[in-house]
Specification:
Elements (H helix, E strand, L loop, with lengths): L15 E4 L10 H9 L4 E3 L16 H14 L5 E6 L1 H12 L4 E7 L9 H9 L1 H11 L3 H4 L10 H10 L5 H11 L3 H7 L3 E7 L11 H6 L4 E5 L6 H4 L1 H11 L1
Helix pairs in contact: 2-3, 3-9, 4-5, 4-8, 5-7
Length: 252
């Protein structure tokens, strides 16, 4: 079961599916969701199982996340869709687009890389001292300029908003998600199977998934559209929300 706080989805529609990253929820997609809803597009901004307001047990692998989403889509008679994923969500999107390529019309991967390996010490913190893991993810998830403010929206504290969001996650979620990312395999072979239009939105100052670690993925997609946002870190939807939206509009 997935929580999706948008209007009731129509059976047989062709929605845009937004998939969040580690320890997060649907709220990271507020700006693009509002935009596409105003354009009368069908939108699904989901909370993955065990995340946000979604019930159910945590899912331990990227392929299981994908299978679970396909089961949900099948139950709603949804055959075709576009998908947008950030970080862990980008791996889920890749798994979906490679396992059933005929169903995916467009795929946008934000803050992605392969392999998306996680440092052993960070994994240990996520298991035994989750606040320390959150602090590391928050610090590394933003560019140097964002760590000292520089938000284009006055009064908003980017790093603290992300820290608070992760602190709301249920017990074990962050460790579960980081391990799922680290264990994801065969990403390059899966990229070759994708037949949809592919877009990658990357931050030039991303310390968690540096742009160089997306280079092999880029080479294995068929004619991908690669967007680099200068000076942005990993949490691109917060650091550069308008630029991300502009790029999504091009792809979707």
């Amino acid at each position: 079961m997935f929580h999706y706080p948008t209007k009731e989805i129509k059976k047989g529609c062709e929605p845009i599916i937004f998939i969040h990253g580690t320890g997060m929820d649907h709220s990271v997609w507020t700006l693009p969701v509002r935009y596409f809803l105003r354009k009368e597009r069908e939108v699904l901004a989901i909370d993955l199982p065990g995340h946000g307001k979604s019930p159910g047990k945590l899912i331990s692998s990227i392929s299981e996340f994908s299978n679970n989403l396909y089961e949900f889509l099948d139950n709603h008679s949804i055959m075709h869709f576009s998908v947008v994923g950030h970080s862990m969500g980008s791996l889920i999107a890749l798994e979906m687009a490679s396992s059933q390529p005929e169903r995916v019309k467009s795929m946008s991967l934000i803050g992605t890389a392969f392999p998306m390996q996680v440092n052993d010490q960070l994994l240990e913190f996520a298991k035994s001292d989750v606040q320390k893991a959150i602090d590391i993810l928050t610090f590394m998830g933003y560019s140097n300029r964002a760590r000292i403010g520089r938000n284009n929206n006055p009064g908003m504290w980017m790093t603290e908003s992300t820290r608070r969001l992760m602190q709301k996650s249920k017990e074990g979620v962050i460790y579960n998600d980081l391990l799922a990312c680290s264990n994801f395999e065969n990403g390059l072979e899966k990229a070759k199977k994708v037949s949809s239009k592919v877009q990658l939105i990357l931050g030039s100052n991303d310390f968690l998934t540096p742009t160089r670690k997306a280079s092999d993925l880029i080479e294995n997609f068929k004619d991908p559209d690669v967007k680099i946002i200068k000076d942005s870190g990993h949490t691109l939807m917060t650091e550069n929300p308008n630029q991300v939206l502009d790029y999504l509009i091009e792809a979707l």
